[in-house]
Amino acid sequence: MSKNYETVIGLEVHVELATKTKIFCSCSTAFGGKPNTHTCPVCTGMPGSLPVLNKQVVEYAIAVGLATNCKITRHCKFDRKNYFYPDNPQNYQISQLYLPICRDGHVEIETAGGKKDIRIHEIHMEEDAGKLVHDEWEDVSIVDFNRSGVPLIEIVSEPDMRSADEVIAYLEMLRQTIQYLGASDCKLNEGSMRADVNLSVREMGSQKFGTRTEMKNLNSFKAIARAIEGERERQIELLELGRKVVQETRRWDDNKESSHAMRSKEDAQDYRYFPDPDLVPVEISDAWIETIRAAQPELRPEKLERYKKEYDIPEYDAKIITETKHMADLFEATSAICGKPKKVSNWLMGETMRLLNESGQDADDISFAPEHLASLIHLIDAGTINGTVAKEVFEEIFKHDIDPEKYVEEHGLKAVNDEGELRSTIEQILADNPKSVEDYKNGKKKAMGFLVGQTMKAMKGKANPGMVNQIVKELLEQ
User: Fold this and answer.
1) Among 56-60, 200-204, 211-215, 382-386, which is the least confidently predicted range?
2) Cα distance between residue 303 and residue 327, in whole Å
3) How far apart are CA 223 and CA 10, in angstroms?
4) Are strands 151-157 and 114-127 parallel, antiparallel or unpaired?
5) 284: phi then psi, degrees, rounded to nearest 5
6) Torsion of CA 229, 235, 241, 246, to 10 degrees
7) Mean local confidence (pLDDT), 325-351
8) Which of 125-139, 153-167, 187-201 has the highest mean pLDDT?
9) Phi/psi class of residue 33: alpha, beta or left (left: φ > 0; alpha: ψ in -120 to 50)?
10) Which of 84, 138, 184, 337 has a 20 to 30 A CA-CA distance from 116?
């Protein structure tokens, strides 16, 4: 008989910080660029080059620590983690083992199962390695050091998660918090947020942890969820067959939806950590922490509460709009210009979300100016354009960030509000459709919809719908 198993999951999340320059040198951190062009003697590990700490890295790390309820280590330092790998230019990585900058934090997540605190063991600062590019034609690997020395924070959770849903909720919470702080863009597809999943299973009710594996190469939330389910099933199957789970690092292949072993962790690697002799310890004063705390922006939970009180929009809308800082900023800026938050929310929740889904983009890709959406709302409210034209114009705003007033003028899209012109057109439509007129008079009220539609067609969709309905009804009931 099959036993019931509990999954135990902890995460190591690496986040690239949004500094303009690297952690220990002045090279650019911009994504992309020709291989090995964002490099210097420091980040390529040349002998005799000396690292100098980027102050902004420390400030971002403290900001993330404060937002995740961590204790800030007032006296922290950097250590050398020695290992040999082709993309690691110095043959060591500068990291923090003994005195990480943040410790003992937590964040609250919410899933279908309710609210839960996920504890954070520590957050430490470190430098990223380079990137190996595998050329299958030549059967060689070449190295790009552009990423080498890009500043990272590593957020290490306690093993408090029990399902893929909890893991995704935790990652979403971290991503939102860090994006709101402006500490990173957290783009998984560009590698600026990466998660390694440590997973084990144990019999339900057992207090003893099972043997864990670590899974790497996870670059989307969907891949993470699939990897968790796949590894859980693999470990349970081994235990059911009476076999042992081996402690190892595994690489997830999302195309094949399976993982394979990369290296064993049965014998813990000796990284020979020691304090970095080229970097002085970092002393963090209470005043420095308070300066950073005072500059912290409004985070999503507080923003959500304020939206409920300040704006007349449904809670569901507020949750979607505040999911990303970019969308929330756009909503607030547009509402401030036009003073109609409910209408702004409707455009963001309706047409904006539809166009994002159709183009496979997410909210961070929205590029239109708040002034242009506010201007569109004004044109509709003033009766200058009708709803049909408004959707056409908005699509242009979404794709090309056009000025709606100029666009409407140049394309002759203004609504026809001339009663005389509308009346003569409607009279012609009624004369051309005697059967529909007769149907209406015989009680078939749907016939009026047909006549209104014919009028809008004749006016090329530019008639004022309210006036058309009013005149059609008046003429039918004469």
Assistant:
1) 382-386
2) 12
3) 16
4) antiparallel
5) -110, 115
6) 160
7) 95
8) 153-167
9) left
10) 184
